[in-house]
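Lecture notes, continued. The same structure-token format from the folding unit now serves as the input rather than the output. Read the line below as a description of shape only.
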């Protein structure tokens, strides 16, 4: 049965897919849709463009079609990347080859092998890791070997049905413009797939393929050791802290085990049910340690062993969740990304200043995404360091860190509220292994001072001012509703202008990245130019509130991030919380108008 005569484009793409695809499963999916005349579904997967490089590379469900992750899409992506590298990289970079890693999801090893096959077919060396690895290992290896690029096959904490493809440039940071768009163009120019590329049986014996995972791990551990001050090792030995650890069914455990042994920590007590890679993520609905429910087994194990701190990576070990037992209330506190970011940021700066007293403070730089806490800004201000804000996503923070290094500055820390942290620049990306090590070192330091993490947070608030957040989102499946919300804010109450205040609270500044970039800030941050898609508005109020509302690039969500930033000694915490909640309620009611716009509250 053929497609309707008016669907010439669909007919063409259908024929192309069936001509190119050699995977029986995805080929059958397309054939079944065709035989059942499900033209709308075929159009959705064959005519609605391709997966695009977002804040974390390519991600999508493992199904047939160009908007999904499958073997044909992987081969076409690898071909486009390979051709682009051949055009743009130096001879030395190409001779160094590329790095390829993968996580424990379904098809990840296969996708990595297909990528390897494409590159060796073009006579480019590939370091293909022989086992699953943390995502930051690929970034580290690109920098270590001066490679042309790196590829990590992972969907991080996405649902089990998904997979992804993260690309690192020769800087070891994730790709940003213009490379991302240029690679996408190169993919479209190289869609034909030679049949020989489907056969990966000769990968292990190919002289262009090497496995340097052990060497990379050893050198990573040395760098991690060198990033910790000598006196901190005395803290580690004397405090003798113990930690419960969850790999969240991912790759992290053997690497955390080696790191903690190398640095002199007690061996972590792992959540056995989540210790090994499991593509089914059997014990959790979503393998995202930001979700409280995923830590249930960790909490039970910690209570059983009378351990006060839990460390949990996400499945590809590039992010870190932390929980601490509160003795006074006999309850657990799961730290937010902002709280962990404040603690880690202070700790990294504290150690850097101790070790590098001769460095001009203004050349020390700490970074955070635009929707993350401004506590790092307050810490930088007090110590004379520089604070830089970037667009959401570590591809911006990592890329900016590389630029700062070229300027002979010291980008020592970066974080995002979604529990991602970069401690140092050996990996210009978020790294859950180094973050866990630095957190464990901080816990050891605090234990010797008789302090808990929560007590240290209170000290930070006293020293740098309270920073209280209220973040959430609304759901709506009609994009036009989101467009109208931002349109109405720009023409507030028909005045043709942005609002000057929210009820009695005056607005001091508005940044609208849906219209234009921030011309006053740093370059190469993603904030210095308007968004290519989506909306993002930030309101700064005279009383210290910073509120950002933005659309999600991957979900039908309208997100809001709010933080009341007080000066040291200004206000009582509970009074500030009441003020924040009042302002957030007013912002939602006056600017977002959920009832009028049919917005669904977060469950």
């Amino acid at each position: 049965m053929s497609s309707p005569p008016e669907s010439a484009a669909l007919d063409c793409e259908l024929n192309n897919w069936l001509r190119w695809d050699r995977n029986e499963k995805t080929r059958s999916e397309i054939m079944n849709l065709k035989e059942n005349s499900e033209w709308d579904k075929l159009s959705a997967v064959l005519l609605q463009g391709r997966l695009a490089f977002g804040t974390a590379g390519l991600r999508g469900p493992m199904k047939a079609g160009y908007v999904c992750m499958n073997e044909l899409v992987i081969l076409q992506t690898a071909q486009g990347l390979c051709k682009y590298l051949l055009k743009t990289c130096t001879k030395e970079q190409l001779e160094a080859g590329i790095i390829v890693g993968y996580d424990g999801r379904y098809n990840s090893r296969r996708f990595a092998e297909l990528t390897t096959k494409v590159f060796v077919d073009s006579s480019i060396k590939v370091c293909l890791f022989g086992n699953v690895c943390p995502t930051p290992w690929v970034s580290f290896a690109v920098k270590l070997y001066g490679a042309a690029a790196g590829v990590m096959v992972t969907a991080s904490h996405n649902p089990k049905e998904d997979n992804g493809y993260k690309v690192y440039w020769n800087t070891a940071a994730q790709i940003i413009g213009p490379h991302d768009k240029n690679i996408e163009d190169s993919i479209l120019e190289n869609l034909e797939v030679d049949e020989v590329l489907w056969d990966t049986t000769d990968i292990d014996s190919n002289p262009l393929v090497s496995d340097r995972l052990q060497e990379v791990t050893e050198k990573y551990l040395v760098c991690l050791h060198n990033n910790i001050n000598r006196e901190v090792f005395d803290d580690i030995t004397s405090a003798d802290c113990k930690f419960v650890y969850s790999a969240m069914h991912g790759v992290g455990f053997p690497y955390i085990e080696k790191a903690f042994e190398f640095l002199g920590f007690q061996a972590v007590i792992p959540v056995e049910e989540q210790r090994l890679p499991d593509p089914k993520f059997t014990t959790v609905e979503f393998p995202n340690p930001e979700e409280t429910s995923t830590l249930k087994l960790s909490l039970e194990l910690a209570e059983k062993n009378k351990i006060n701190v839990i460390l949990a990576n996400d499945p590809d070990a590039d992010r870190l969740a932390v929980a601490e037992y509160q003795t006074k209330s006999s309850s657990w506190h799961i730290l937010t990304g902002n709280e962990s970011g404040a603690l880690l940021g202070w700790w990294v700066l504290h150690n850097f200043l101790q070790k590098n007293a001769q460095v001009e403070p203004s050349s020390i730089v700490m970074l955070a995404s635009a929707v993350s806490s401004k506590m790092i800004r307050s810490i930088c201000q007090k110590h004379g360091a520089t604070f830089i804000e970037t667009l959401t996503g570590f591809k911006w923070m990592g890329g900016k860190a590389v630029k700062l290094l070229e300027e002979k500055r010291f980008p020592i820390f970066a974080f995002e509220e979604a529990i991602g942290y970069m401690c140092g620049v050996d990996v210009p990306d978020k790294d859950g292994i180094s973050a866990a090590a630095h957190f464990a070192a901080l816990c050891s330091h605090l234990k010797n001072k008789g302090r808990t993490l929560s007590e240290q947070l209170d000290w930070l608030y006293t020293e740098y001012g309270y920073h209280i957040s209220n973040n959430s989102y609304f759901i709506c499946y009609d994009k036009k509703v989101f467009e109208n919300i931002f349109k109405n804010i720009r023409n507030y109450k028909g005045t043709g202008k942005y609002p000057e205040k929210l009820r009695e609270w005056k607005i001091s500044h508005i940044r609208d990245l849906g219209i234009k970039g921030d011309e006053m800030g740093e370059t190469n941050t993603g904030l210095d130019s308007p968004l290519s898609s989506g909306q993002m508005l930030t309101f700064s109020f005279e009383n210290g509130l910073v509120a950002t509302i933005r659309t999600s690039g991957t979900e039908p969500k309208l997100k809001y991030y709010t933080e009341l930033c007080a000066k040291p000694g200004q206000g009582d915490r509970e009074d500030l919380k009441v003020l924040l909640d009042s302002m957030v309620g007013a912002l939602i009611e006056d600017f977002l108008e959920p009832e009028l716009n049919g917005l669904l509250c977060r469950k």
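Point for the exam: The CA atoms of residues 232 and 441 lie 7 Å apart.
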